[in-house]
Amino acid sequence: MEFKVNSRILEKLLSHIIPAVPTRTPMPILENFLFEIKEGYLKVSATDLEIALISSVNVSAEEEIKIVIPARLLYEVVRSLGDTQILFETEPNSKLKLTTENGIYNIGFSSPEEFPAIPAVTKEKEIIISGAELKKAIDQTSFAMSKEDMRPSMTGTLFEFSEEGLRFVATDGHRLVRYINKKIKNHKEEQYIIPEKAISVLSKLLTEDEVKIYFSKTNVSFYIGDIEFNSRLIGEKYPAYNSVIPLENENEMKLKTNEILSTIKRMSLFSTTSSKQVKFTIEKNNLEVSAEDIDRGSNAKEKIECMYKGEPMSIGFNTAYVHDILSHVNNEEVIFKLHSPTKACIVEPAKSSENEDLLLLLMPVRLNN
Amino acid sequence: MEFKVNSRILEKLLSHIIPAVPTRTPMPILENFLFEIKEGYLKVSATDLEIALISSVNVSAEEEIKIVIPARLLYEVVRSLGDTQILFETEPNSKLKLTTENGIYNIGFSSPEEFPAIPAVTKEKEIIISGAELKKAIDQTSFAMSKEDMRPSMTGTLFEFSEEGLRFVATDGHRLVRYINKKIKNHKEEQYIIPEKAISVLSKLLTEDEVKIYFSKTNVSFYIGDIEFNSRLIGEKYPAYNSVIPLENENEMKLKTNEILSTIKRMSLFSTTSSKQVKFTIEKNNLEVSAEDIDRGSNAKEKIECMYKGEPMSIGFNTAYVHDILSHVNNEEVIFKLHSPTKACIVEPAKSSENEDLLLLLMPVRLNN
Predict the structure, then answer these.
(1) Does domain A125-243 have CATH number 3.10.50.40?
(2) Distance from the B317 Cα atom to the nearest Cα atom in chain A, whole angstroms
(3) B2-114 belongs to which CATH class?
(4) Does the structure's ipTM exceed the value 0.90?
């Protein structure tokens, strides 16, 4: 068997597939690429059993083969070559021989029998979305996924189809984000939970190009250009997040986003490491933000101008969570909607575009004093 | 006590001093800046007992003070403020109060008694060198310092004064670099060994500006603009490195530096992890570089054009060391001077400028076969 391929083209292909190769695994076979030559295509696949990536490129080859090759070694070799033609040949001693103008590289390959089958996703549900829009939805929400395995559903991002639009929801119990893409409407309410690993790989694969998504009950497939990206879904029920979103938070405070964000950054230097508490003392058109680190005997307070309609109020937050939320408001001005110091606070951009809706929710912390 | 200072000016000053603040230390007092107001100057110092940094800025203050302040907290606060005036006031409860237009920040300070005295360097020997030239000398040599504490002198960089020039030498026993700045001549041979930490901090402080250096028997001081940088010297004898530099390596091979460097990068993927061995097989005008990873069953070889005057030879090197050496040749073409497969190999740039001399030395490794 032999075929030729340009190093730059192969490098690009392999760079798309390598994210599915696990760095540490009890199954060494997963550290390989599956290489298949069939019907004039070289198809390369990898999987860590949770996600799988597949892509292919035209090659002219006479024979068909199916072998597995050490993924990182091959990728690093191809990447380290300049722009050159590579001749691939299989040798009788289970070596894959790469020949370039100046060099010869032999890499051991194995037979593909042990390589796990990548499950085909039944195309029960198809949607088409712009890559840029999907990327925006993910970038707005993924930070809020839970890092704790206690409730597996919350470690992923919810894709919820509805008549209102496609809702992307992430929460860890302390904060929640709901981003709605109103262009993708569905008569039936349906929920799919995509694991964190898949979200993070997907975010890097997305371009401006259109994406086709297929959902089955257990798996999801994304088709992005030449790339097929599969992931298992989290087979749990997502928490009834709607019940924690307050309907009437009548006290509204409007602020410049970058002003409050830069204040929060300074307060994080003064809040006690364990509690990370920051206090908002709100009066008409004036917000005082303060923090105190009792262990180190330091404290700070700042005044920020705001527009406030409501009762004077003192409310505590975790600096890290306020910071995360404010970093994702994506608008010059931000609105805090409050009810009381013990009830969830809604954070929203002052303006949002026609086809989207962003709601951020922040749980307060009990003030020390 | 009170004084005013601009946040950007203070940030710049503190950024120069913070490298001397240790990140982990059994002496918490070292995690502070020493702040002194005296004769219209604010002088800020820090030390980890091995190195010390001192700088000052004009301020108008009526009283003199001397206090110690948590270094990282103060630096982070000042850095996080925009361009603004900061009013500093000491409060009776051992708090330093910073006031800006919108905020008030209180940081606990302590008395300076426990803060270690920074030794003044007796100005026994003074030299003046351009910052750019000193930086070049350090960048050319520092990579070869030993990481192992077995022989303390080799963990630093040797500054050796001589009639030929100022020699900078670093070695870990596997490779050696000697860089000579021929502009700085001295009648007497003198040796000073600067520790690794000081070299690394110095490299970041250097600019185009002139540097004044003072040596005493135990310490060295660098004056760079407003900054005074002190370090202890390593009080050991430097190994007699001249005895390992071969005088007659009669076989000479000239190569394009980037070609051999990129070949070595690929070979490092194929050399056995434990030995990192790469083999050079040299014949007239032809170099074959090869490596084999027996554990993984992979191997590689490449041919490179060269100009070779000498006997055909096979010689082994450690890929990591060849790579380091070639990365510091600093010339389009490189010359390998060889004697035999068991003797030290000299690596030199094909051309070097009038006022400098660079010699790199590489110990071969015994070939497997």
Answers:
(1) no
(2) 19
(3) alpha beta
(4) no
